[in-house]
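Morning. Coffee machine broken again, so started the prediction first thing and wrote up yesterday's gels while waiting. Chain of 191 residues, entered below exactly as on the submission form.
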Amino acid sequence: MRLQFYNFALLLIVTISLQAQSDPSTYLEKAMEKLEAGDCNGALKWYNVYKELAGVRKTSVEALIDDCANPPEIIYKLGDQIRVGEDTYTVAYIRDSGKHGLAVSDKGWAAITASSTSTQMYIVQKGIPTFDELKLLYQNRDPVRMYDVYWSCTQDSENSRYYKTMDFSTGVIDNKIGYQPNAIILLIYRF
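Came back before lunch.
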């Protein structure tokens, strides 16, 4: 009985393998699915099986996989727009000749008062700038038109109930968010 089961399983595996070999396009379809999902390595594995079975050298799909695995280096300049999911950010600070920096959300600004109970969760989830990042953004406030009072996620060293803020119109630093009730939480994207 057991031997019959093993023979049946072996026959089933061989049959499936022969069917797949007769239609290598199934491997190409799997490669495209992986590529669309952003899985470059998975796409390459399926594509290599397709190439072997179909006897092809190089196709446009291979070029897409190469681009996925080795994306071109992007250089940003101040004011450039960056799409991250459904959100848009404006580049407000660059370093390393535009390879890295900070971008501010175009729609993710939110006025918040000192009495908010969800402040800590909001800071963690949304990428609130540190005080050092706020100072960098302050240097480039004109190109992106930032002139309000902004929160940082850096707590005051003397009183952990307060977060450091900066008034971008004057450059004034305030460690007591309670005295800045109209301070804005600035959502950023680090690249």
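DSSP finds six helices and nine strands in the chain. Going to sketch it on the whiteboard this afternoon.
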